[in-house]
Design a protein that fits this description.
Blueprint: H1 3-8, H2 11-15, H3 23-37, H4 46-62, H5 65-79, H6 100-104, H7 118-127, E1 146-152, H8 154-159, E2 161-172, E3 188-189, E4 198-203, E5 206-211, E6 220-221, E7 234-245, E8 254-257, E9 273-279, E10 286-288, E11 291-299, H9 300-305, E12 307-313, E13 316-322, E14 331-334, E15 349-356, H10 363-375, H11 382-391
Parallel strand pairs: 1-9, 11-15
Antiparallel strand pairs: 2-7, 3-6, 4-5, 8-9, 10-11, 12-13, 14-15
Keywords: Chaperone, Cytoplasm, DNA replication, Metal-binding, Repeat, Stress response, Zinc, Zinc-finger
InterPro entries: DnaJ, DnaJ_C, DnaJ_domain, DnaJ_domain_CS, HSP40/DnaJ_pept-bd, HSP_DnaJ_Cys-rich_dom, HSP_DnaJ_Cys-rich_dom_sf, J_dom_sf
Subunit structure: Homodimer.
Length: 392
């Protein structure tokens, strides 16, 4: 991303968030856009791919607090008119015209101001660059992080599973191995910036550094371009890797795979891959932390008289004793039948009893229940009756 992009592109508008949005709001907006416009979900749709790239570009800046601060400062400074074309210095006639495109040149540059941060850039503008006019060579740059989402079955999330994950993302060109040159040739050092990637330029009373226009800020020139990547050194490729999801991974959890993101530039390290986990709900079981939950219906007679209850687990079944006189909603605990963590921590299975009231009774059952009701003591409702009498 060039420095000029930081001025011309409204990353907040791309993600559809306010400038004062929190980091969580920015993350949620990016995930929503990434899911909707991901190339895997929109095959053959170039507009969706562009939206996906734009959202990734915006998130790459706004998700980093330091880069977001520099971006806001940059936009604020230029938005104030301080550097607009034909601005007049101090409001007096005779001011020097200033063209933003002159400042940044026509090159792509590095992802942040041609390899320099916000403070370095303006330090160069007003101080004339480094001592002796020498531009510092651009060093290795870390690759961008990549995010994706994976849906797991409930049982796989509890027990752990290894799944193949297919990604379509930028990667190093296999033909030229990232240098952009045709096989059998090599890039040569740029004769203008001598490999630094930036040049010093004087304009009136100002002197500042800018990305080299001859090599686009890379420091090398490719004379015979790779036929596969056309000199860029990278291509969008599909790659498949096996990802291990540990036992007990939870819905919404993010797993970091170091070095599995986009490749770095000029020998820099690759970014990371972040996998967001979505766990499909199970038809029987729920989950609270490391405990599994299960609701089991029981009859009125079973609750009153007690019974042995056979209930399923994720890997078999257990028998639980329902004591006589158990009320509806009571929770029974099967220890060690919940989520097993790789650290050795084990949860329980929590079984909630739901006393079922039949909607219809046979004549025999009704007669038996009426006889039971006559022999049963009334429910203790004196405290309720007292309140009824006071409000009546």
């Amino acid at each position: 991303m060039s420095s000029k992009d930081w001025i011309e592109k409204d990353f907040y508008a791309v993600l559809g968030v306010d400038k004062a949005a929190s980091a969580d709001d920015i993350k949620k907006a990016y995930r929503k856009l990434a899911r909707e416009s991901h190339p895997d979900h929109n095959p053959g749709d170039p507009k969706a791919e562009e939206r996906f790239k734009a959202a990734s570009e915006a998130y790459n800046v706004l998700s980093d607090s330091g880069r977001r601060r520099e971006y806001d400062e940059m936009r604020s400074l230029f938005g104030s008119g301080a550097f607009r074309r034909n601005a007049r210095g101090g409001g007096q006639p005779g001011g020097m015209p200033f063209d933003v495109s002159d400042m940044f040149g026509g090159g792509g540059g590095d992802r942040r101001f041609g390899g320099a941060g916000f403070q370095d850039l303006f330090s160069s503008i007003f101080t004339g660059g480094q001592a002796g006019g020498a531009a510092a060579p651009r060093g290795p740059a870390r690759g961008r992080d990549v995010e994706t989402e994976v849906a797991l079955d409930f049982g796989d999330a509890v027990r752990g599973v290894t799944l193949p994950l297919t990604l379509r993302a930028p990667g190093v060109c296999d033909t030229c191995h990232g240098n952009g040159a045709k096989p059998g040739t090599q890039p040569r050092t740029c004769p203008v910036c001598h490999g630094a990637g930036v040049t010093n330029r004087n304009q009136g009373s100002f002197s500042f550094s800018e990305p080299c226009r001859n090599c686009q800020g890379v420091g090398t020139v490719v004379e015979e371009k790779c036929p596969e990547c056309h000199g860029s050194g990278g291509v969008t490729k599909t790659r498949t890797m096996n990802v291990r999801f540990p036992a007990g991974v939870a819905d919404g959890q993010r797993i970091r795979l170091a070095g599995r993101g986009e490749p770095g530039e000029r020998g820099g390290p690759a970014g990371d891959l972040f996998v967001h986990v979505k766990v499909r709900p199970d038809e029987l079981f729920g989950r609270t932390g490391d405990d599994l939950t299960l609701t089991v219906p029981v009859t009125f007679a079973e609750a009153v008289l007690g019974t042995d209850l056979r209930v399923p687990t994720l890997d078999g079944a257990v028998t639980l004793r329902v004591p006589p006189g158990t009320p509806s909603g009571r929770v029974l605990r099967a220890r060690g039948k919940g989520v097993v963590r790789r650290e050795g921590q084990v949860g329980d299975l929590l079984v909630t009893l739901d006393v079922v009231v039949p909607a219809r009774l046979s004549d025999e059952a009704r007669t038996a229940l009426e006889a039971f009701a006559e022999q049963s003591p009334p429910a203790a409702r004196e405290h309720l009756d007292a309140r009824v009498r006071r409000v009546s």
